Amino acid sequence: MSVPLLEAENVTMRFGGVAAVQDVNLKLEEVELRCLIGPNGAGKSTFFKILTGQLRPTEGVVRFRGQDITGAHPHVIARLGVGIKTQVPNVFNGLTVREGIGIAAGRKKSLRHARQIVDETMELLQLSPIADRMVGQLAHGQRQWVEIATVLAQEPDLILLDEPAAGMTHEEVLRTAELIREINKKQALVVVEHDMQFIRMIAKTVTVFNRGKILIENQVEAVLADPGVRDVYLGKQAH
Ligand SMILES: Nc1ncnc2c1ncn2[C@@H]1O[C@H](COP(=O)(O)OP(=O)(O)OP(=O)(O)O)[C@@H](O)[C@H]1O
């Protein structure tokens, strides 16, 4: 059996008496796209923060290609090949789009290789027309794409995205869905998302969280047709 790209084993996170995440097991294969959904307070963000190293779980283990990364510092996790989309720091505001992506690309590469990555990434994200614009002057959606570009420029094997479509216009959401499918041709992604329309556009396998546990994990069509999933989204709790 091959080693999963990412694996969470019996992960539990307690805050005082509250178990935000309880005994969660999840496996992700190479180049897989996994969506994590669930109602408010279901534990998605907490689980996501455990994957990124922002939180150390009370119990359980997280492995990347078999290596224990439980509670490892986010930059250590990044160096292993996990890209996490975070807000582009404000210092980027005074840089052009090309310069910002260049900084992300240049971290561990030759200048020539970095330039090539910057060009390819800008092409993929259709940022070439705004390459010389200041990051600080971009609209919300464009800034989100620059953030994704800075992650891609580091050439990760796994990309973790928390609500990538939040605050976007309908056209931007469509473009972002297209982009995620494109990225997924080569790289694995875990996407936490609220927007069910967006999930319908991108999802293959979906893991549904409810009350800190996995309620169901299946292909998107089966998940969306599941009465238990409908109940938790409508506020009727499944027990
Ligand atoms: N730092 C914390 N301290 C105490 N309780 C917390 C903390 N973080 C999360 N919780 C609790 O853990 C539970 C799960 O929260 P979490 O934010 O992970 O859910 P979520 O599924 O991401 O929700 P949302 O979709 O609203 O972001 C909630 O009951 C929340 O109040």
UniProtKB/TrEMBL annotation:
<keyword id="KW-0813">Transport</keyword>
<dbReference type="GO" id="GO:0005524">
    <property type="term" value="F:ATP binding"/>
</dbReference>
<dbReference type="InterPro" id="IPR003439">
    <property type="entry name" value="ABC_transporter-like_ATP-bd"/>
</dbReference>
<dbReference type="InterPro" id="IPR027417">
    <property type="entry name" value="P-loop_NTPase"/>
</dbReference>
<dbReference type="InterPro" id="IPR003593">
    <property type="entry name" value="AAA+_ATPase"/>
</dbReference>
<dbReference type="GO" id="GO:0005886">
    <property type="term" value="C:plasma membrane"/>
</dbReference>
<dbReference type="Pfam" id="PF00005">
    <property type="entry name" value="ABC_tran"/>
</dbReference>
<dbReference type="InterPro" id="IPR051120">
    <property type="entry name" value="ABC_AA/LPS_Transport"/>
</dbReference>
<keyword id="KW-0547">Nucleotide-binding</keyword>
<dbReference type="GO" id="GO:0016887">
    <property type="term" value="F:ATP hydrolysis activity"/>
</dbReference>
<feature type="domain" description="ABC transporter">
    <location>
        <begin position="6"/>
        <end position="236"/>
    </location>
</feature>
<keyword id="KW-0067">ATP-binding</keyword>
<protein>
    <submittedName>
        <fullName>ATP-binding cassette domain-containing protein</fullName>
    </submittedName>
</protein>
